[in-house]
Fold each of these.
Amino acid sequence: MANPAHKRWLILTAVMLAFLPVVIDMTILHIAVPSLTLALEATSTEVLWIIDVYPLLMAGLLVPMGTLADRLGNRRVLLVGLAVFGLASLLAAFSQTPAMLIGARMLLALGGSMIMPCVLGIVRRTFEDERERAMALGIWGTVSAAGAAVGPLVGGALLEHFWWGSVFLINVPLMAVVIPVAFALLPRIETTSPGKWQVGQAALLITGIIAVVYSIKAGIGATAPLAVIAVTLLLGLTLLAAFARQQLHATAPMLDLALFSHPAILAGIVMALFVTGSLAGVELTLAMELQYVLDKTPLQAGIFMIPIMLAAAIGGPVAGYLSNRLGLRLVACLSLGVSAGSLALLPVVGFDASLIVPALLAVLGLALSIGLTASSIAIMGAVDASKGAAAGSLEATAYELGSGLGITFFGVFMSSVFSRSLALPPDLATTLAERAATSIGDSYVVAGGLPTGQAEALIEAAKTAFSITNSVLLSTCAVLLAVLAVVVFVLLSRDRKVG
C-alpha cells in the first residue's frame, strides 16, 4: 500500500538527512589535505591511502550491504550504519598517526556502505510513480552534488578556526540529530526480499572486489612488486568468477546478475563511474592549486568553490524535470558534453580570471549534477522496488570506485607530470630532491627544513610545476567526459524505454 503524499516526502527528508553527512565526508577531506599532511608528516603515498581507502573499501562492501538491506529491511541497516559512521568519525578526528587515520577511514567506509544503498532503496520503495520518482531522485541528486560541493567550504571554515580533525568531528553532532529523526520517520514495517543473506557469498564478493581494485591501484602506482600485483589480480578475478557462478545457479541469489542486461543500468553505472572519478580528481587538484599555488587559506579556497555548490544544488530537480520533458538520453549526453567544455576552458582562462572562472565552475557544477541524477533515474527506473537497495548499491559502488580510482589515477598522473615539470634548485641534496619531486606537498615539507633563499626557490618552482600539472589533468578530464557522452548515447539508444 502506497504511503500518503505528505508521508512520502517526509520519508525522503529523513533519508536525505542521513545521506548528507556521508556525501560531505567524500570531499571535505580534500581541503584538509595540506593541513593534515604537515601535521601528521604524512608521505604522498600515505596521503593517497588516507583519501582513497574510504571509497575503495566501500566499493567492496556496498553490494553485500545493499542485498542485506533488501533482506533485513532498509531502516534497520541504515540506523546501524549511522551509528558506525558517527563512532568512526570520532576516532578519525583524534588520530595521531597516518596509520590511525587510515584505520578510522576504513571504519567510516563500513558505516557509509550501510547507509548509501539504503537511501536509494528507500527512495525506490517509497515512490512508485515514475514522475514523482524522477523528482525525488532529483532532490537526491541535489543533496549528492551539493553535499560534495559544500564539503570543501565547510572544511575551509572549520580549518580557519580549528585543527584538521574538526572535519571529521563535525559528523558526531550531525549523527546525534540524524539518528533520532531517521528512527522516528522511517517506516517500521517493510517488504523484504526472500532468502537468506549468505555470509560466504558476501565474503567472496568483498574479497574479490577489494583484491581487483587493490591490484589496479598498486599496478598504476607501482607500489608493489609485479608478481604480487599479478597474483592479487588473479585471486580477485577468480573469486569474482566463483561468485558469479554461484549467483547464476542459486535459487535466491544475493545479487541478480540480470540487472546488468539492462542498457539503462549499464549507462547509469558507466556515467556514475567516470563522472565521479573526474569530479573527485578535479576537486582535489583544484583545492591544492588554490592553497599551494595561489596561497589562499582553506576558507578562501572553499569560498572559491561556492559556484559549484550553488549550481549543483539546483541541478538535481532540473534533471528530473528535463528528463520528464526531453527524455533521459538527450539530458544525459548534453550534461556530459557541457561538463567537458567547461573543464577544457578552465586551464585556458587561468584561475586568476575574476568572472570567467566562477561562471565556468557554476556551469560545471550544474552539468555534473544533472548528469549524476540522470544516471540514478536510469538505474532506478529499470528495476522493481524489491531490488531497489541492490540496484542502489550498484550505483553507489560505481560512485565509490570512480572516486577511489579517480583519486588513484589523478594522484599517479599528478606525481608523474609534476616530477617532470619541476625545475629543482641545483644545490639541493639528492635525497631531498627525490622527495620534493614526488608532490607539491612534499616540496613544501622539504622547503620547511631549508635556508630561506633555497626554500623560496623550491616553493616557486613547485608552484610553477603544479600549475602545469593541473592544466594537463583538467584537459584530460575534458576528453574523457566527451568520449563518455558518445558511449552513453550508444547505450541508451539500445533501450526502448529511454526517450
Amino acid sequence: MPFSTILPKEKVLEKIEFTPRTPNDVTALVLHSTDRRNPSDYLRLSIENGFMIHLLVDKSGKVYAEPLFLTKIFIAAPGIDRESIHIAYEGTQESLLANPIQLTKLISIIDTLSEELDIPKTNQNVITKKGIFSHNQTKRRFGGFVDFSACGGELAMQSILKNLGGQFFEEDNWVDRFESGWSLKKESKQKLQESFHPTNGRGITKAAKIAIPSLEKDESDFPLESYRVRYTHRGKINPTCIVLHYTAIPDYFRSLKTLENRNLTASIMVDKDGKAYQLVDVLEDRAAAATGTNDNCIQIEIVALDTAELLVQTDQIEKIKLLVTELCKKYKIPFTNEDIASFSGIFSHTQAKKKWGGSIFLNAKDFDPGEEYMELILKSIDGKYFSEPDWKKRKDSDWAILYRNFQP
C-alpha cells in the first residue's frame, strides 16, 4: 500500500524532499521501529522533522511504501542515507518478536531486497555501509541522531538475521568497534593500556615556564611536576578557542589518573579549591579531550562530579573566569560560544559532542559542563552567551546530535 493511504491529508507525499539515486547505489538496509506510535503518527512526525523512511510493516503484517523507494534518498540516518533503504516496523522489538505475522512479513521483505540488491545478510561491518543494520548501530557509527533510543533493536536484528541464514554480531564484535571513527565511542581497557606509550609530561619531559599568571607554579615559575599528566605528544596547535569540561570525578588526582588510563590529555585542570594546573609541557601541545576541537582549542578540565557541584564551588568559578580571560587575551579568542565550527570562542564539551560526537557519553540534553555553567562564566566575563537554539547552524543535519523533536 502507498504511504498516501495512511498519511494525513495535509502531508502530500510529493512534497517530501529527496535526492535521486539509482538502485545500484543501495548497499544497506536499515531497520527502524515506531516504538509506541501508530504508523500514521510516525510518518507525520517524520515528515514534520525533515525525515522519511521507505517501507513500513504494521502489526497486521500490511506493508506501506514510497512507490519509488529504490530511486529516492530519504534522510533518516545521516551518514548512511545514500546507501540505505529505511524499513520500519510498528511497535517495539519485543512486540515484533511476539507477533509472528508481522515478523514473517518483515523477514520476507528483507530477504527479497537483500537477494535482489546483493546486500550481505550480516551486521558485522557498518563502516562499509554494506549489510543489514539497526538504526541503533548506524547512530553509533555515523551520529546524526536525535536521541539514543535503541531504534531497530539488536534482539530484532538477531532474530531476523538468524531466520535469513545470515550472521549476527554482538556490538563488541562489530568491525573496529573499539577503534576511532565512531560517534559513540566504546573503549577497551586492554587496548587503551596497550596503546598508551607516554612520551611527555610528569617525570618524562621538562615543562616550559608558566606563561599564564593564574596557573600554579613552583619557585622557578615552572608547572608543579606532581600535578602534571603523562601523555603522548600529538603535535602543536595555534590556539583559537577554549573548551570547558568537567571531570565527572570529584578528585584531582583520580581525574588525572583517568586521563592517563584512557590515553587522553587536557591542557589545564582546575581543582575544587580554585587552583589551576598546567598539565602539558606547553599550552600549545595538542590535547586529546574533545573530538573535533583538539587541533584548535585549549582543553580545560574542571574537577567536579556534575554541573550542580560546579555551580557551588565559588573559588573554582572565580579561577575559571580569571583563567579564561587571561587565555582569551593571550590568544585573541572572542568571548562567545556562538559558532563552534569556526573554532573561535569559548565552548562547552557538550557543544563539541553535539557537533562531532566522538565520546563515550552522548545521550543527554545538557552535560559537560552544562549550559547553566557556561552561561554563568560567559556572562560574568562580559561575553556573549548563546543558548542552544541560537548556536550557529544548529538545525543543520551535519551535527552528531541533531536538533529536532523526533526521528524515525
Amino acid sequence: MAATLRRAMDACSPRPDGIWITLLLLLFAAVWLPHLAHSSLVPPTDNIEQLTWVRSLEWGYYKHPPLPTWVLWIPVQVMGLSEVATYVLGATFALAAMGLLWRLLAALRGPVHATVAVLAALCITYYNGRLYYYNHEVVLIPFAVASAGLTWKAFRTRQARWWLALGACLGLGGLAKYHIAVMALAVLAFWGWQRGWRDTHHRRGLLLAMVTALALVSPHLYWLWQHDLGPIRYAMESSLGLELQGGRRWTGSAHWLLDQLLNRALPAWFFLLLALWTCNRGAQRIPAHRHTAPAIDTAMSRRLLLCFGITPLVFTCALGLFVGADLQLHWGAPFLLLAIPAAMELGRCKRAWSAVPLKSALKAFGLVQLLLLLWGQMISANGEVRWQRHHWRNFDAQALADAVAPEARAELGGPIRLVAGPPAEAGALALRLQEKPLVLLHGRLDISPWVDRKLVDGCGVLVLSKAPKPPGYRAVGDNFPGLYWRVIAPVSSSVRCTGESNATR
C-alpha cells in the first residue's frame, strides 16, 4: 500500500479531477475489502440478514423497507448466494457517496478543498473498517449526500426539475430506511434559513419534492398498512419507543454524540489536523497553481453545508433527550461524512483547506490508514493478537455446519432445506451448508415470507436455539457455548426436499 501511495503522490495532479478521485476510491477499496474479508470468519450480521431476505422480493420486511434487498437480488442471480456480493455492494454504495460528496464540494469550494474533505471522510471508521457492511444505513449514504447536492441545485437554478429530482432522492431513500427523514429535516432547515417561503419557485418546488417523495414511497406505505406497521412497531419496541427516563436520556445522548465525534470520526479529525499543520508549515511557499473556490454565493453554500452536517447530529440527540429513545450507535453511519465539510466551515481556518499541498495530504492520509489497518489486523479473526475474541467476526459458521449437518441430514432423511432460529446464527449456518437452505427467522412464518408451511411439513427443519438448556435440544459443542440444536422431522414426504439447492424467487 505504501508503494502504491508513493506512486500516486508522484503522479499527483495539482488540480484533482473526477478520474483522479475515482482511481483513489478504487485503490481504497482494493486495499480494504480483501483485508476485511480475510479478517472475519463470517459475514457481518447485517449482510447475513440481507442474504436471508433476498430469497423473496417484497414491498417490505419485518424490520425495514425493501430497497437494499431489491438491489442485492440482481448480483445474487449472477454471483449466487454469496457474501462476496454483499461486500462489493456495500463498498459501492459507500464509495459512491464519497464521489458525490467530492463533486458537491468541488463545485462549492474547489477540487483541493473537496479532496481534503473526502480523504478525511474516508478516515471515519464507518467507511473503512465497515466498508464490507451491506445494510440499510449503507444504502442510505449516497441518498443523504445526493439530497444536499440536489437541494443546492434547486436553490441555485430555481428550476422545478431539481426539486423533482430531490423528491425522487428522498423517496428512494425512504425505501432504503426511514432515517431519510433526517435529510428531509435538513432540507427544511436550509429552506427556512434561506427564507424559501418568500419565493414562489421555492414554495412550489418544496411541495413538488414532498409529493414526489410520497408517491415513490406510497406502495411501501400500503404494505405497512397491510402488515400492521411491522417495521415501525419493531423500531418502537427496540429503540424509539423505550422512553428512557431521567439521567439515562442525558447519558445516552451524550454517549451517542461523543461516540460519533470522538470515536468514529476521531481519525478524520487527526487527519485534518495533520493536513492543516502541513499547510501552515508551508505557508511561505504556497505554489503558484493554488486554486480558489468557484464564484458562488459563499454565504448560502456555507448554510447548506452546516444544515446538512449538523442537523442529523442535533436531531438524533434530541430523540434521546426529549423522546427517551435508546440511540443506536450505527444510526450515524449515513450522515457522519457530512459533518466533515460542516466542520471545515468553522473557525478561522476555513479558507486554508484549498491551500493544503495534496502530496502532504496524501502522506497524512496514508499514515492514518496504515494505523487503521494495523488496528484492524490486531482485532482480526485471523490475526496474531486477535483482540475482541467474542466479536461476531470470530463466529466459525463452517465449524458449526461441520458439527451439526451430517447428523441432521441423517435424521431428516435427506438434504437440509430449512434452518430455523436466531437470524444471525441460523443465517450464517445456512450460508455454509451446501444446500443453501432457507432461513425461518425465529421459527416464525409471519416474518419469513420466503417459507411456506408445506415446505416445513414436507422437508423438516434444523432448529438452533440460544435459550438456556431447552428441552429436546443438544449442545452444539464446547466451541459454541450456549448454542443448541435439534431436528424437526418432516410430517410428510415431498419431492421438493430432494435435488438441487434452494433458489431465490
